Automatic annotation (TrEMBL):
GO terms for molecular function: arsenate reductase (glutaredoxin) activity. Belongs to the ArsC family. It comes from the Bacteria. Signal peptide: none annotated. InterPro entries: Arsenate_reductase, Arsenate_reductase-like, Thioredoxin-like_sf. This is Arsenate reductase-like protein. Keywords: Oxidoreductase. It comes from Streptomyces pratensis (strain ATCC 33331 / IAF-45CD). Transmembrane segments: none annotated. PROSITE patterns: ARSC.
Amino acid sequence: MEIWINPACSKCRSAVSLLDAEGADYTVRRYLEDVPSPDEIRAVLGRLGLEPWDITRTQEADAKELGIADWPKDAGSRERWITALAGHPKLIQRPIITAQDGSAVVARTDEAVRDALGR
């Protein structure tokens, strides 16, 4: 199990605390420092069953600067979104937990963290 976090994020700290309280075996990835490659983002999206725009923090300054709100959300634009996430990791929603069963979850609630633990 791996969790992608930004240590400055309260939801990330909460998720890590819950994993610790449950005695989970996991690895922390500080994704702002250890930026995921486009291939890693594609893999996580596949595990999540989501599209890149589903995990994009559109209110971030980088998103506004890029004009992401106006980008199409379609198959033809998918790579553009992935490239933006890899180039601007602050745009990646957090935390993301990759579960043991090969799935993943955006773990913004305690319920989502527990869901990942149960997989």
